[in-house]
Design goal:
Layout: E1 9-12, H1 16-27, E2 33-35, E3 49-51, H2 57-63, H3 67-73, E4 81-84, E5 91-95, E6 105-107, H4 108-118, E7 124-125, E8 130-135, E9 141-145, E10 150-153, E11 155-158, E12 176-187, H5 190-193, H6 195-201, E13 205-210, E14 213-219, E15 225-232, H7 237-240, H8 248-258, H9 264-271, E16 278-284, E17 297-299, H10 302-305, H11 313-330, H12 334-363
Parallel strand pairs: 1-2, 1-11, 2-7, 4-13, 11-17
Antiparallel strand pairs: 3-6, 4-5, 8-9, 9-10, 12-15, 12-16, 13-14, 14-15
Function: An FAD-requiring monooxygenase active on some tetracycline antibiotic derivatives, which leads to their inactivation. Hydroxylates carbon 11a of tetracycline and some analogs.
Organism: Streptomyces glomeratus
Family: Belongs to the aromatic-ring hydroxylase family. TetX subfamily.
């Protein structure tokens, strides 16, 4: 195996956690390769807005030397939360932005681009899908790619999300359905095209809760509002309803029926959207999710601790990436570094998983009998 001074490190997945790890390693003069199955950085939309916490996401940005660039893009006003009554859209609770060290918002795509622009050109190997990972007897690890080729590394880091191809090298765990589905949609140029909706949502997020269903809307940059129709429902709800998810008119009609009795200003989210409806079933890994240490391979982010999307996942992934990179720089061997990292990350993720489960229950209360 290579010396600890120059280990061969591969990161599978060019998401926020993997890119944080790569950036911090390169700041310390370490070589790293990131393998990503997508063909390019703009192969697909990167999702909505993220609030970055001072002790996790912002701490990782500071370690990566990117905190000032983040602050230039972030929206502190996006911390605002408005909770409305479903029957008449009356304001029930309001929370404004906090102090300077709060949780400013940034579009996920903007944040990812910030990392991509900061790492050495060629670090990310696009269109390199990993099919399997095999730990080897000498403590190294082999990456098998979709095109049939293979490469060996001293460490393979699984940063490849919910359906990780790296995870099976460490754990038999697979994600399970939470009982909650988000149906996502969006609104463009809201201040001019959808001014009443813009007023309801405010500068940050709006939440409206009912029995077994909720509406969440969030400001993104450039006047865009992203909305989520959150449902406690069987995963195949559309099958039971006889709906083809590709039939947008049928989906709209069914959702409007589900939200019958809600204020018309809130039902506007279902009837006047600019983008289509996208069905997103929410999955989580079993909690606690742990594994016996295996030399040459580890996990970070959703690959290690997939949780409901209530504000912790991206923050923890970035902190994982920063912590792993720092351990690889500080420890005398790759194996010592991974053990040190896992001793911090795994207990932290167990606590966070419990908090995220509670957060999802708060966001989408169970229907009462």
């Amino acid at each position: 195996m290579n010396s600890a001074r120059d280990p061969r490190i591969a990161i599978v997945g060019a998401g926020l956690g993997g890119l944080t790890c790569a950036r911090v390693l390169q700041q310390h003069g370490r070589s790293v390769a990131v393998f990503e199955r997508e063909a390019s950085a703009d192969a697909r939309p990167q999702g909505g807005t993220l609030d970055l916490h001072a002790d996790t996401g912002q701490a990782a940005l500071r370690a990566a030397g990117l905190l000032d660039r983040f602050r230039a893009l972030a929206r502190p006003e996006g911390e605002e939360w408005r909770v409305l009554d479903f029957a008449d859209a009356a304001l029930l609770a309001h929370q404004g932005p906090s102090a300077a060290d709060g949780r400013p918002e940034i579009d996920r795509g903007q944040l990812r681009d910030l990392f991509l622009d900061s790492i050495t050109e060629g670090t990310v190997r696009w269109d390199r899908a990993v099919s399997r990972v095999t730990p080897l007897p000498d403590g190294t690890c082999r990456l098998l790619f979709g095109d049939g080729t293979a490469e060996d590394f001293d460490l393979v880091v699984g940063a490849d999300g919910a359906w990780s191809r790296v995870r099976p090298a460490l754990s038999h765990a697979v994600p399970g359905y939470t009982g909650v589905t988000f149906v996502e949609t969006g609104f463009d140029h809201c201040d001019t095209r959808h001014p009443d909706l813009a007023r309801l949502v405010g500068n940050g997020s709006m939440l409206v809760k009912g029995a077994g269903r909720s509406l969440v809307a969030q400001r993104n940059s450039n006047g865009h509002i992203r909305a989520y129709i959150a449902l406690r429902t069987p995963e195949d709800w559309h099958v039971a309803a006889g709906i083809d998810l590709g039939d947008q008119r049928a989906v709209r009609t069914h959702l409007l029926r589900m939200f019958d009795g809600w204020d018309e200003s809130l039902r506007y989210l279902l009837s006047n959207n600019d983008s289509g409806f996208t069905n997103r079933s929410l999955y989580v890994l079993p909690a606690p999710h742990t594994w016996e240490h295996v030399p040459g391979v580890t996990l970070l982010g959703d690959a290690a601790h997939l949780m409901p999307p209530v504000g912790l996942g991206a923050n923890l992934a970035m902190l994982d990436g920063s912590d792993l990179a720092h351990a690889l720089v500080a420890e005398s061997s790759v194996d010592d570094a991974v053990r040190a990292y896992e001793s911090i990350m795994l207990p932290r993720s167990i606590e966070a998983a419990a908090g995220s489960a509670q957060g999802l229950n708060h966001l989408v209360p169970a229907a009462t009998s």
